[in-house]
């Protein structure tokens, strides 16, 4: 049987079949064949999720062959993309069309369909997640039918599809709200955490993108700010300190060290207090943890399962080496995050059951109702999704 594993190697599967969909017709035929054989289907992007979203025992369909820009409309600031396109491969064609994504996360290795399926985000108090930019989707359903959805047509399905956990079907194309191409300038500096804390409320919204990593070993904060600029790009990027270039060149970073990660979004106004509590926890109970804690912001949206649903958030991420057992550290952090009304990132580690998730997501029942109506037999559900499914 074939092997599938995620980026960190922590999530593994040996499905009965692993297929690489290279066209929409291929995706459609794979779903039809799975139905004929009574197999479950899970969809994979780049496998960068730490959560057990992709593993399944039936068929795993890798969508990264469904790649490229389908088309764009500069005036409407819209782009239609194949869902398997790696985010890094979108930068240049969008740029050539005079367009760019409104924001990006820390890395650009994910497939755009996988990133949107879990609410992937960057940082910026006025910037929403990638899921919030989804204005339309084209999906191969469990029935084998292809459906187009957006705010006007099949609007309930569109709402559910913006952040879909791979549970609605194979998303073949996405339509995204984009913006005109723009240049960014990055700056960075390091300071003591105690010095940063009183300035945080002022610093966080002062630039388009603000984030920092708090390092437990020396109690320092490594800060990064990124602002729009009309300055010309300087290549090679970063040779003279902070990078200056087009958005798709400046926003992504390299994350070469394999790790596992938990991230929670807390109400923006509670972010600093929550981080202070995590810092106290690390300093008093987990003094050997070397991995930093990341602090970012995401603007409120109306995406049903979004961790920023109807509230501005601060996101806090804790990491651990894949060679270490993260369980006691992450469980202790999760208790803190929950005390601060946190909601977990769908692509990262959490230990919540369906009741806990239902209590923090107002549109939980709506999302499942749309999903279950399209796929009553649970073709697109794996063990994890079955475990959190209502009732
Ligand atoms: C090093 C690293 C850095 C990261 N940085 C960030 C960050 O800055 N911000 C952030 O928010 N997150 C970040 N993440 C998390 C990551 O963005 C999410 O887990 C994202 O979902 C991964 O995308 P993927 O293409 O790898 O999807 P996968 O992990 O392969 O799949 C994720 C989900 O999407 C579904 N899916 C994928 N493609 C399709 C499709 N075509 N149709 C239907 N369903 C589909 C899958 O079934 C699954 O449920 C990071 C992860 C890593 C490992």
Overview of this protein structure:
The chain has 391 residues and is an alpha+beta fold. The chain has two domains: 69-180, Uridine Diphospho-n-acetylenolpyruvylglucosamine Reductase, domain 3 (2-Layer Sandwich), CATH 3.30.465; 183-344, Vanillyl-alcohol Oxidase, Chain A, domain 3 (3-Layer(aba) Sandwich), CATH 3.40.462.10. Helices cover 26% and strands 27% of the residues. The chain contains twelve helices and 20 strands. The protein has helices spanning 24-37, 87-96, 112-117, 155-162, 193-196, 200-203, 247-250, 271-285, 327-339, 354-360, 364-374, 383-388, and strands spanning 4-5, 12-13, 17-20, 41-44, 59-62, 69-73, 78-82, 99-100, 134-140, 146-150, 170-177, 179-180, 183-192, 209-215, 220-229, 244-246, 259-267, 293-298, 313-321, 343-344. Helix 4 (155-162) crosses helix 11 (364-374) and helix 8 packs antiparallel against helix 9 (327-339). The radius of gyration is 20 Å and the shape is globular. The chain binds flavin-adenine dinucleotide. Flavin-adenine dinucleotide binds next to strand 4, helix 3 and strand 11.
What gross morphology would you assign?
A: globular
CATH architecture of the largest domain: 3-Layer(aba) Sandwich
Question: Which structural category do the helix and sheet elements fall into?
Answer: alpha+beta
The major pleated sheet works out as: 8 strands, antiparallel
């Amino acid at each position: 049987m074939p092997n599938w594993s995620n980026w960190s190697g922590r999530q593994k599967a040996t499905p009965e079949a692993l297929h690489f969909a290279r066209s929409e017709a291929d995706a459609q035929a794979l779903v039809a064949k799975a139905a004929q054989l009574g197999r479950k289907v899970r969809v994979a992007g780049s496998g960068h999720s730490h959560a057990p979203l992709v593993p399944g025992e039936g068929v795993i369909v890798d969508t990264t062959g469904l790649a490229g820009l389908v088309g764009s409309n500069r005036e409407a600031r819209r782009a239609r993309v194949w869902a398997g396109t790696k985010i890094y491969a979108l930068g240049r064609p969008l740029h050539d069309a005079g367009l760019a994504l409104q924001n990006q996360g820390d890395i650009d290795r994910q497939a755009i369909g996988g990133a949107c399926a879990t609410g992937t985000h960057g940082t910026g108090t006025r910037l929403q997640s990638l899921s919030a930019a989804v204005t339309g989707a084209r999906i191969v359903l469990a029935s084998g039918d292809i459906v187009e959805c957006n705010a006007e047509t099949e609007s309930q399905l569109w709402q559910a599809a913006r952040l879909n956990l791979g549970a609605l079907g194979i998303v073949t194309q996405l339509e995204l709200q984009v913006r005109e191409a723009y240049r960014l300038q990055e700056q960075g500096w390091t300071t003591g955490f105690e010095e940063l804390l009183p300035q945080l409320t002022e610093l966080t919204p002062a630039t388009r993108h603000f984030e920092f990593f708090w390092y437990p070993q020396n109690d320092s904060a490594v800060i990064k700010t990124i602002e729009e600029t009309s300055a010309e790009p300087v290549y090679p990027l970063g040779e003279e300190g902070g990078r200056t270039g087009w958005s798709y060149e400046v926003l992504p970073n390299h994350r070469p060290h394999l790790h596992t990660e938990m991230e929670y979004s807390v109400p923006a106004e509670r972010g600093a207090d929550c981080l202070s509590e995590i810092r106290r926890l690390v300093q008093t109970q987990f003094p050997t943890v070397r991995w930093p804690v990341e602090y970012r912001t995401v603007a409120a949206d109306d995406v049903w399962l979004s961790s920023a649903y109807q509230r501005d958030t601060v996101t806090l991420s804790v990491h651990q080496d894949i060679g270490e057992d993260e369980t006691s550290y992450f469980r202790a952090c999760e208790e803190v995050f929950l005390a601060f009304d946190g909601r977990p990132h769908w692509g990262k580690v959490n230990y919540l059951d369906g009741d806990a998730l239902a209590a923090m997501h107002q549109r939980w029942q709506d999302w499942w109702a749309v999903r279950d109506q399209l796929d009553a037999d649970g073709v697109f559900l794996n063990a994890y999704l079955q475990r959190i499914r209502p009732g």
